[in-house]
Structures are given as structure tokens and as C-alpha cells.
Amino acid sequence: MLMAHPAVLRDLIDECEALTAVGADKANSAQARQRLDDVTYTLCVSTGTRDIDAALAAARYQLSGARPLNDSVLSSS
Predict the structure, then answer these.
(1) By the 8 A CB rule, do 62 and 47 touch?
(2) I want to staple 36 with a disulfide (CB 3.0 to 4.6 A). Which of 2, 19, 59, 75 is the partner?
């Protein structure tokens, strides 16, 4: 299985936690709910899981064993 870059996983976790903290899943804003759904889907695909709890656990596990963040492959130099 391909593994997402640690920086990508960290960004997805942070965004998911932020959206959850502001109550995007219960918000009146369809846009906020859609963004949370998109982040959840991307995390699940990136970790090979089927629900957000498993995706977050898998992403955190992958990050715990990852090398220090190196964004050199993401830069456009």
C-alpha cells in the first residue's frame, strides 16, 4: 500500500480536528459539512481504512514512526 507523506497526513489530521472542534458535522453550513466529509474521505483513502476513528488512529500511528518532517518533495524549487 502506498503511504501518504507525513506532512500530508499531519495537515489532514489538523484539518479534521479543527473542523470537528467547530462542529462542522452539525453546522448549518453545507460547505463546512462537505469539507469535513472530504477530509474524512481523504484520510480514509490515505490510510486504507473505512471510518474516521480508524483513519485517525492509523495516521497517528504512521506519523509516530515517521522520520522528521521533510517537505523537500513537496516544494517547487
Answers:
(1) yes
(2) 19
